[in-house]
Structures
1.
Amino acid sequence: MVTFTLNGRQVEAEEGSTILEVAETYNVKIPTLCNHKALEPAGLCRLCTVEVYDGRRTRFVTSCNYPVWGGMEVKTDSEDVIRHRKMIVELLLARCPNNEFVKGLAAEFGIEATRFKLEEDDCVLCGLCVRMCAERMGVSAISMTGRGTDIRVETPFQIKSDACQVCGACESVCPTGRIDVREIAKYEPRPLLSDWEVGLQERGAAYMPFPQAVPLAAVIDGEACAHVRTGNCGVCREFCEAGAIDLDMKEEIIEVEVGSIILATGYDLMDPSPMKQYGYGVYPNVFTSLEFERLSNATGPTGGVILIRDENGELTVPPKSVAILHCIGSRDVNHHEYCSRVCCMYALKYGHLIKEKVGHETKVYNFYIDLRCFGKGYEEFYRRLQEEGITFIRGKAAEITDQAITPEEEGKLVVIGEDTLLGKRLRVPVDAVILCMAMEARSDALDVGRIFGVSQGADGFFLEEHPKLGPLNTATDGVFIAGACQGPKDIPDAVSQASGAAAKSLALATLGKVLVPSTISWIDPNICAGCQTCIGLCPYTAIEFDARRGVSVVNEALCKGCGSCAGFCPSGAAQVRHFNQKQIFAELDGVMDAISAVGI
Amino acid sequence: MSKLQSQKDYEDFRDQVKKERDPERLLVSICAGSGCGAYGTEEVREALEQEVSKNGLKQKVEVKVTGCHGFCEQGPIMVIHPQGIFYPKVKPADIPEIVAETIVKGEVIKGKLYKDPVSKKRIQKEEDIPFYKGQHRIVFGNNGMIDPAKIDDYIAVDGYSALVKVLFSMSPEEVISAIKESGLRGRGAGGFPTGIKWETCRKAHGDIRYVMCNADEGDPGAYMDRSLLEGNPQSVLEGMIIGAYAIGSHDGFIYVRNEYPLAVKNIGIAIKQAEEYGLLGKNILGSGFDFTVKISRGGGAFICGESTALMRSLEGQVGRPRAKYVHTVDKGYRDSPSTLNNVETWANVPVIINKGAEWYASLGTERSKGTKVFSLVGKVRNTGLVEVPMGASLRTIIFDIGGGIPKKRKFKAVQTGGPSGGCIPEDLLDLPVDYQRLAEVGSIMGSGGMIVMDQDTCMVDVARYFLDFLQEESCGQCVPCREGIKRLLEILTDICAGNGKEGDIELLEELAGTVSKLSLCALGGTAPNPVLSTIRYFRKEYEAHIYDKKCPSGVCKELFYYEIDEKKCNGCHVCFLRCPQEAISGEKKKPHTIDQEKCIKCSICYESCKVDAVAIK
């Protein structure tokens, strides 16, 4: 430890630390520009200059890299220091008079105008980008080239760099916004899109999954993280004050023994891209229902303000008219025959939200086949919306186009459809279109079903044991289903079903034991030839192969006694208990005896 | 030649070399330094050798092509020993006469002797010429006796005896204390005490230590390091070996700019020869001490003369300085303790060891010891390299040795220390030149550049010129240096173009203060010197430019015009004939006039008027 004077106050510091570090711990503010927590101090901007008196003379040193020593006297805000710092800022302002960051810096120092001739530059040459690329990314795709006033940040030979890993670290540390990774990298940068915001917003490689995530902790996207990919970077560690970042973490498989399992794997929203007639992905202002949900959500990319895309693709413009297209992919023989059950009601909600948030003059058109407002209070809500002035057009929209044929349609999206009640073709120009996409079974439902012994219905959703008597059960005992993985349903239904499934699990747990039917299969190990045919046949995955003995074995807890194995077993080793040949023949004998006794 | 393996081997060999040299033998020494070389030494040498063999004198006469003699103004220089006859400005056509008269007959050709411009007398011997008389040449003195490509020549003047003394009779600590006692300070620019530097480096933590020679001489007009490396490379090498022994280093580098091809060549030869002789490499002279030297050629950036930038350049990185809060003697090249001294400093080391620290400390002033080589250039009669004891006055150097200002012009200022030095006015001419005094008057010693300026030099323009150089040579990393110098230059350019405004001088001073105090390295730290010193001593000139829109020296073209004084003009018609623009009219023997519309202010009329009738207005 060394002791020295900081602005007239005795302070203690670790040997080897810099004045800036010590000042920070003592809450003494020193302005910096080219300093960055994650980088070695370079002392280039000289803004952090302080005065050091060593007993003989006063010197001006940069606090970011000047190591402290015992007995020195440091002044961080003497008149001279402030005067020199102001000159530095004035020089920077003359270099970049139109840059917002530099203007802000000048304002902080009370500088309104510079006495030097104005230039037009955006780069203060702090070198943060170059040092970040070299020190932390280990790439050095850019460097300071040239000398004197010709110095600038460039790629070698001013050729777009193929060494650049397009990580954007340079951009992220640039204070003035001068650095654009597109000017550096040979390859087009691909933004990381937030899954939670359905691609409406970008995110970093380290991010909060969603606002109410449990646990509320950041995660790192291993496919995007420069550290995971190259072993460099690791800058986040410098910033996490809690020291919570462990970049050496590996994924692990945890085996948990449980008595029952509830499948609540949810659904996928149908991808509208293949339905070319609706122009999703072509017209920027055609949204899916989930995208619109994020747009109207208070934690969404627009903070709950309903905005649509401007000509640059940014969400900035409030819509003047919106069309909501029901049953896209549902109730459609070309896609899904079933009704997705929730679209009608959320479409009504959207209409209400648009009116409320954007303004009552905003026009909302619903293109529907039928409005299925079947729940408690739903019909009343529908009626209310009709009163709010939302237009309902009975007839599914056929197409969306931007080809205007009247002046009103210029610059708008035109929904082409038919009002079947009036028997009239319609062209409705709107600013934005919301597609109420079908809910469909998850793309990996087949694999999940196989693992848990749960089969799928024709629509792809998981099949319950019995639609009326066993809606929560599956073919496998102890495996229950809840929510939209079983079929499209709204939140109240999903909650009810989940509660039921939970109760079923609890019932098993409370009992502490499982009742199995007595009429189950049994494979006689003395006869079994180990052909394993039965294993493929068993619908309950109840038969396993015992490789040591070379025979198939029935898991008694899983077997339902259906007899598939017994019926097919070539050697007759598989049998259903209580229904073996001897018993059946004895039964037959008894029946025959009775018949003869009666004398038929 | 087999390697010398002991002290005795060396002494025997040295005595043998000396014995072979007959002091009475005819020796013609021709200077092949940069100055003389440019004037045509090669042609003179060829003519001389032809003439010598034509006359069958090959056995009798030795022709030696040596390094710089220092008096570059008078090149090519020829000195004929043993008489020491000095012939300046020798042309190939002079050779037959010189051979016939001086070499064969031993007679002096009076008409070819040096004529002193002050006393107008012909002088026969080198040492009697005022230029040499006022000097004390302990580092440069041997140049005239040595063919840089021959190590034997160096050994013949007791070269490497200092190394022998050090290796066999002194401990490293003793060497360091000798250097400390001598008071030797870095001759590069910083003036840091060399002994202390060595001692710190020796004590610094680290297994490997490096010794380096800074031969990246970048100051415009300064060429003493170049001349030393070209003329007497072995002395630099010997100094480095002694330094390495004292510090405990086994690896050395010479960082020399590639723009000095002859220096690169000669130091390369010197290293090879020293290795062949066992004076460099493994087990030097059987002492068990190992030291090797490599040459690293720089691209010629001025900033690479700065120690940290030089070391980065050596490492293969871009030559840009870093903050020196951790010194290079602790962490330099490859983060190991490194000692960097410039060429002249190293060349001083053998002298100190041979003659003793006490003798060396007796030269110079209280805190600046020994001698310093200056390159005396500009508006002075005798340009060349001048070695004088520290503390010699500017007047001695410029007027006694330099012969004063030519063409009857008046002395105005002398700029010392290269581009970042300051300008010293006439009333400070009696200033003894040492590190302190120069700093006190706002200049620096630098590496010893000395540019003399006469009345026709505009001081604002001088400041502008040097800042233009510094702007290009700044590495550009730190804000005060890059942006500050640019703005200083911008303001000065405006002033020179007649666009100066009130407050410019104050702004220059304010900005210069920030640049000098806040810059990362010494380049920025000293860059404002030309501005500040010219404002300090020549403020009136600045004011004339800004307020009167006049350049009193007639340099800034926008701010003056030429006019012919009717009373003085005798109508000689010279200006009329020489004017490239045909701007001058007038009949012979009648006063002439200048058409201001046509005049481009080329100054030809001003220079050529014999009666000073052309005046700057």
2.
Amino acid sequence: MPTDGVHPTEIGGAGEPLVRARGLLKAYASEPVVKGIDFEVRRGECLGFLGPNGAGKTTTINMICCFVEVGSGTLEVFGEPVGGDARSIKRRLGVVSQDNNLDPDLTVIKNLLVYGRYFGLARDRRLARAEELLAFVQLEEKRDAHIRTLSGGMRRRLTLARALISNPELLILDEPSTGLDPQARHVVWQKLRALNRAGVTMLLTTHYMEEAAQLCDRVLIMDEGRIIARGTPAGLIEEHIGAEVIELYSDDPAHADAVAVLEREADHVERAGDEVYGFFRHGDRARALLPTLAEHHFVHRRATLEDVFLRLTGRELRE
Amino acid sequence: MTGVFERLAGACRVWLRNYESWKDFAVASLVGTVAEPLLFFAAMGFGLGRFVDDIQGQPYVAFLAPGLVAATAMNAASFETTFGSFTRMTEQRTYEAIVMTPISVAEVVAGDILWAASKSLLGGAVILAIMAPLGLIQSPLALAVLPLTFGVGIMFGALGMAYTAIAPSYTFFNYFFTLVIGVMFLFSGVFFPLEGLPAWVGWAAWLLPLTHAVTLMRSLTIGTLDASLWGHAIWLAVFTLVVFWLSVRLIRRRLIR
């Protein structure tokens, strides 16, 4: 298991690459969306693609799924270049798409059975696996329900179960918890962690920093078609932000005084609208300021991946 | 390179997906596939037919019936690969889900077209089954109508699929059903013989795939075979292959960006 975000494969050098991209580029109507990126997904790890909307995350994983054609550069999955109908690659992949594309004409169990048939699995094996997976995603009581009667969280869990029917070596998840309520999101995370522990390699995209911090051994931060940073969540926070953050709010009558303190003491100060953030490389320096700030409206917290993300991709709104 | 067997297996798995979603609503679906042509059969064959002289030595209803088999095959397959396939491709995103498994785009297209042809076969078989006790089948050759119905289903299934691949929305199927399917239904010799009309009508009708299907089916049920039928059979085979190839290409272009 990862400890402090450092994955065993990075220490031992094990975990051969299951996906290998070099100079990967994709353009639509000469508008580039992925601008020459290099990365690897190694066996056993959970790798996260982080990025704002339009960063090129989905396009990148769709190229791995052979659903979007590679523009230029090389992309190898399981050691094989993608292209053509790529049957031997797709046989070993499990895909959880961003939007629900469960088969609305079929019941819950039939969704799993019919999907398993696409992989050529024999009927009794499909049935055994489907029942097992329904239990895993806690949908046994919905076995014969129609898709339209399921909640968003149930659909996402069923999509996950569907992707697992063929025992994939690499599970690809495009924003696995987008649109789910907190309860449903935590259930999905639990399931994904269990899978990763059981040895399933995972590649996921997300714009929830908490999701990346919770699940991923390594993250790649993408923006405007490029990878702008990579590393373990803890390593990235350490490298780009430091240890702790103090946030000041402008409804504080003595706001200006507090800001002055931060500007003097913090390693880096950032303003966003009415808020002022002070970043500290060493937590003890932040903590030493707390008595001084006691009368002010502030929040003191640990630095997070979200701080890294906002630092690197900026605070302007994205489409 | 993937083996032919594996490709066929892939298409069959898509076919089975359609069968499993269809069988729960089979009765409702059968009304569209079978009841409509039977109503035409009754109204035109026995209603209008009383006022019409024999055609090519046949009572009108015997002339009409094999044409209706061909038209039924056309309609059943066309509906399936337009409204049905379009829904699966766009709204339901079923195609997208399937091509992320080992199934290829060509297999999805082939599976849907084979499914459409199966509906054609079902519709055609029901009409044949009603023709038999009415004495409208005059030759054992009529058994060959069944595989022919399936083939005609593949042809129109592929044609509908090719149109689906370029249709921006459901509304655009109006063009297809009025200007392509509707024209063929009325002017391919289903309801009246094309012989004796101005020559250009014959030439125009020769361009319509349904004309060749109707001619073949009628010859088989009546039992009048001659060498000219090969021409119709080859026309249908070539057209089917071209349109099938085109439909795979177009769907692939639309689905895989």
